[in-house]
Amino acid sequence: IYANVQKGPAIEVFALTQAFKDDTHPNKVNLSVGAYRTDAGEPWVLPVVRRTEISIASDEKGNHEYLPVTGLDTFTNAATQLVLGSDSPAIKANRAFGVQTISGTGALRIAADFLHTQLNRNVVYYSNPTWENHHKIFADSGFTSLHSYRYWDQSNRQLDFKNMVADLEQAPPGAVIILHACAHNPTGSDPTHEQWKELAELFERKKLFPLFDSAYQGFASGDPDNDAWAVRYFVQKGFELFVCQSFAKNFGLYCERAGNLTVVQADASTKAAVHSQLTLLIRGQYSNPPAYGARIVSKVLNTPELRKEWMDSIQTMSSRIRQMRAALREKLVALGTPGTWDHIVGQIGMFSYTGLNESQVKVLINDYHIYLLKTGRINMCGLNTGNIDYVAKAIHAAVTG
Ligand code: PLP
């Protein structure tokens, strides 16, 4: 029965993480997977998350009953408020609601399934480059017209806004356009406020559907409100849209799969039908979501002292990343490594799109045991005061070699 099944390609980021684990070299460095690391190179359970999980686990009244199909209300309401703002007119008018999903990936998949099956959408655009799963999720959902829009100017190592706009001008009315809400993965380069305004004007004129992928709220600026600026601007302009939220990075809850799909509508009257169809989609896929991560996020966001502590941890993470950006740039400049390295500090969020080419990446992996994606994307959190000299010297050798 299985004899004709062809082996599929490896998933680069997981293959690199495995290769890193198997590598016995004492100086090995993992700059591939998008997960936060402390300055000691360790995963970080946010202190407020640790305390909250202990308090939830020790609640004698707690149990493991099923959640409703669309998840924990206190979580979806808090998540929707986090991205749209507590004073959001859409929330006040009952035009916005959330459904719990299997982290950000699950939000994207449910969104894609809904758009395809309920709204007959078939055309999707994502940035080039983007998180590599966007294509797969929409293709697996049945979208047959998948396109990329230009986003990155490799020679100047910055956002290619002119060509982004030129490509989106070609999109047909109704096309679903995936936008990274902040801290674009992999380039770390976001549109400015003025550019977002221009995009909103284009979306309105061309009748494009904005689907915001929000996997890094808080990681770009250290302030979740700032990082939601683009989403809130589009909502304020009256768009109907989706936001796919992940709590993997900003709560460090990677494996707990806490996510939310926020739906913004023009009118509260469509809520019951849209909600019911999302419910049926989820029912057919996994019936109901896991509770663990959602309970933690809900308790933290809904308790002012805990929420404040979480905001402090977001600051800790984003400021460590900024320090590493400055340190890496400084070291490459001091070494006289050919090229300009200012983009490393100009970019924001977890990643830097270094501009290293595929053969330079190979040198880093094979000769220096430094693991990064072949596009040259590095996770800044993999750098720390203990390995940054080693990495800078290795980059210098790869570039000059
Ligand atoms: N979207 C982007 C841009 C991402 O980078 C990621 C994770 O790396 C996700 C969505 C989904 O993450 P998760 O499913 O772990 O929440």
UniProtKB/TrEMBL annotation:
Its EC number is 2.6.1.1, 2.6.1.3. The keyword Heme does not apply. This is Aspartate aminotransferase, cytoplasmic. Homodimer. Its main location: cytoplasm. Residues 27-395 form the Aminotransferase class I/classII large domain. Keywords: Aminotransferase, Cytoplasm, Pyridoxal phosphate, Transferase. Its cofactor is pyridoxal 5'-phosphate. Belongs to the class-I pyridoxal-phosphate-dependent aminotransferase family. InterPro entries: Aminotransferase_I/II_large, Asp_trans, PyrdxlP-dep_Trfase, PyrdxlP-dep_Trfase_major, PyrdxlP-dep_Trfase_small. It is an enzyme of class 2 (transferase).
